[in-house]
Amino acid sequence: MALVRLLLALLVLLAALPGRAASRTDSLKPLTVYFFDVGQGDSALIVSPSGKTVLIDGGPPEADDRLVPRVRELVKGPIDLVILSHPHLDHLGSLAKILQAVGARRFMDPGYDHSSEAYRKLLSVVDKKVGQVMTPTPNPSAPETLLTIGLGEGATLTILSPRAPQDPFLTHTRSDVNANSIVAKLTYGETAFLFVGDAEPETEEYLLRQPIDFTSTVLKVGHHGGRHSSTAPFLAAVNPQAAVISCSTNNEYGHPTTEALQRLGDVGARIFRTDLQGEVRAVSNGTTVTLSTQKGRSAPTVVTGQVRGPVATGPMRSRADDTSSSRVVRVKGTLSERGDTSPAMASGAGPFVSLKGSEVFHLESCSSLKRAKTKERTMYSTRSAAVRERRPAKDCNP
Known about the structure:
By secondary structure, the chain is α/β, with parallel strands linked by helices. 25% of the residues lie in helices and 24% in strands. It has a 9-stranded mixed beta sheet. Strands 7-8-9-10-11-12-13 form a 7-stranded mixed beta sheet. The longest helix is centred in the N-terminal third of the chain and has 14 residues, at 2-15.
């Protein structure tokens, strides 16, 4: 009996060893980010653990032939969210054809107007092909908070900038269009990805004044590795383990510049370049990120996540008492009627919707909404916010 008790004790001890507990991360579904090789431009696709998809930028027009088939290969249905970081041709050039080929449920851009013909043509396609058009406007009920989009399985995408009209657009910079690029942080477990568009030094200075944890495992380098972006203070705050530069071979701008490469090297980032290595794929298991390339590197590179807390470490501005999240939006409305919302894209978690004049709210996926003729509706990012103003509908039990 003593021997039996000893064996049982050993089994209990083995079951409690750290190696057993670590296997929990092995069971997490992967989150994948594809940094496409689009030449002199930017385009990246996020595929969340729950299958939600977010396309950030669409490269230049000359990337059409390879980018559209690649997106169709990876996305089996409409893209959940398309983000245009800013309305320059090297970021929007292929988006119209992607939307026509694949479709999208939501489209977001900074809301900073630009007079280019290519941008106007894109907006025309968006108006016809996308269900909801939005800008990263802070919630009026809680203007000190950041817009956060749930992607399922604990993955979140937080929009850090711009925050107009709560904070005015940046002006009098080298390029105001670049300076007001959408900056977003994707977080999954202890890993994070930071997308900065073509952010200017003034953008980085503005962000560094905010109570935000910028620590990120992977940085999509700003402005293709231009010498003005990726300032030393900003890189010190981000502390990237890996940095991805999207640019073309022998481009006329000299990207990436020696200055940017030096600053990235100073913070110890492992550098990946689409001009040298083609498409870069980054897969996160919540603890580490494995980066593999289309060409160049013989073996994948594994970097460790270091994110421990929330993105926002404090209120962006004075805290409001009411933290509910509801706004009137227009679905399939004209671009002049553009509305904004904070969609929780996680399956079964909202957002919740109430039609104009109704006393009830529904799940966004509710079939009765598809039959509704009215376009005006109120969106709630949380159920508690919806309950404060409406009662749950009986047909879909939100």
